[in-house]
User: Which sequence fits this backbone?
């Protein structure tokens, strides 16, 4: 292995890493993809986007079936949920796409190397060396460039460990049955998505969020609308909640927290999901042996995603200043490969990366919120249109929510688009395309 000098060695086979690998191969580069797991796909494919969205699709169908009569569908009796079948379908979808990735790696002649990769320092004569450890069996990979794509893992609250009741995004995907009650700590994408899904499956859901609103990165009006619709669905929301203690009880968990007024409260539930953010996995990959600069656990990069160590790049969840989103990681991987291959590319622009939150209703957003546009001194003009006035929304039974466009009055420049409602995660792509082409509100 050590005799081969690759053009690029990639550490991590999630969406950021495998997309980079394929793009590199398409450019004719010799690529090695190193992953500690024998199955490629990373968090997104195994314990993130894909299994979660599979459950969401089940929840959606289930929600529609609850009022099948309204759609004129009769004769199906009382539908019941076969949870084992739900999980089986989810797992089958993951397996199918893992195989798809294996096929793509072979097709593109990418060398997939199983093992945990670590940097060893700066390049020597323009060649980097990566140590690879496969259960104690050591080898080295040599490459002219290295891309770090090692991803992230769920943060835990201090003193807690995930188990069958205290859950992260991993454990919650394989529950033997939907919980009767679920408390969720954190109302970012993970928290609100699982809250929405398990509410559809009948759980009593309580959300405890430290900040004053749900999905705090979104436009304030989006947060407000989501809270209104979640409450309508029977989800209990506690914003401004400071969690003090999480304990296991005989049958479930007990969460002690101070509410927004500082009053101590207790919430008991069968399970608790801890969804308080994700930590980049950068601790043990040899960064200290290099000149790479860090921002906490995140890697600092320049416009072309190169670190302070020449020839070493970072993409995906570990990058400081970029959102931890699969599509952001994939795009970054493609940009890096274009740069390495000497092809034309445009740097990733934070303001053009859409966010998609797969709740019911969905949220899709891109660019500045109204508050951010005001802070930056634009002459802000806002246009909002409710889905209630859109026949297609009524047809798909989704008349709640709205589309909000934040623009600058001077030229009609679109600064941000925020959608909550039916198919928002698809509709937002249209906004991104218009913004990329510098279309105006006109
Ligand atoms: P997050 O950082 O987006 O949200 C965590 C939330 O937890 C924040 O609102 C924070 O205020 C709150 N919080 C933190 N500590 C708390 C505490 N002690 N008590 C109560 N609340 C607390 O993190 P996440 O939701 O875990 O998601 C992790 C990353 O993965 C994010 O970047 C997210 O965007 C991404 N992700 C994206 C999608 C998607 O695009 N659909 C889905 C899942 C995850």
Assistant:
């Amino acid at each position: 292995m050590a005799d081969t000098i690759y053009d690029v060695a990639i550490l991590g086979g999630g969406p950021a890493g495998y997309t980079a690998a394929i793009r590199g191969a398409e450019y004719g580069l010799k690529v090695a993809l190193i992953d500690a797991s024998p199955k490629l796909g990373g968090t997104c494919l195994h314990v993130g986007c894909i299994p979660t969205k599979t459950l969401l699709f089940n929840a959606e169908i289930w929600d529609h079936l609850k009022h099948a009569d309204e759609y004129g569908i009769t004769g199906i009796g009382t539908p019941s949920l076969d949870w084992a079948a739900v999980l089986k379908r989810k797992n089958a979808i993951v397996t199918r796409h893992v195989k798809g990735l294996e096929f793509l790696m072979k097709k593109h002649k990418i060398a997939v190397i199983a093992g945990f990769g670590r940097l060893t320092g700066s390049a020597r004569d323009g060649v980097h060396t990566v140590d690879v450890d496969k259960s104690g069996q050591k080898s080295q990979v040599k490459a002219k460039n290295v891309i770090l794509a090692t991803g992230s893992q769920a943060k835990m609250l201090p003193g807690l460990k995930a188990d069958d009741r205290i859950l992260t995004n991993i454990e919650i995907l394989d529950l033997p049955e939907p919980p009767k009650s679920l408390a969720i700590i954190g109302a970012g994408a993970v928290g609100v998505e699982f809250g929405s899904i398990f509410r559809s499956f009948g759980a009593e859901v309580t959300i405890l969020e430290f900040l004053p609103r749900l999905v705090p990165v979104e436009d304030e009006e989006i947060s407000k609308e989501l809270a209104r619709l979640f409450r309508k669905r029977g989800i209990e929301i506690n914003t401004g909640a400071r969690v003090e203690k999480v304990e296991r009880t005989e049958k479930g968990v007990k969460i002690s927290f101070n509410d927004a007024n500082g009053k101590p409260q207790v919430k008991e539930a069968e399970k608790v999901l801890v969804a308080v953010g994700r930590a980049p996995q950068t601790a043990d990959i040899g960064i200290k042996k290099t000149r790479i600069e860090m921002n906490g656990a995140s890697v600092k990069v320049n416009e072309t995603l190169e670190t302070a160590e020449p020839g070493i790049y970072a993409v995906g969840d570990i990058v400081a200043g970029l959102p931890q989103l699969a599509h952001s990681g994939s795009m970054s991987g493609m940009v890096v490969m274009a740069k390495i291959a000497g092809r034309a590319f445009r740097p990733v622009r934070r303001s053009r990366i859409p966010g998609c939150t797969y709740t019911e209703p969905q949220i899709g957003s891109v660019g500045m919120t109204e508050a951010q546009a005001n802070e930056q001194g634009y002459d802000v003009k806002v246009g909002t249109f409710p889905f209630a006035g859109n026949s297609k929304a009524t047809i798909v039974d989704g008349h709640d929510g709205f589309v909000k466009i934040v623009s600058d009055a001077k030229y009609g420049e679109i600064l941000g688009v925020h959608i909550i409602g039916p198919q928002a995660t698809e509709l937002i792509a249209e906004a991104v395309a218009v913004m990329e082409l510098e279309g105006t509100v006109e």
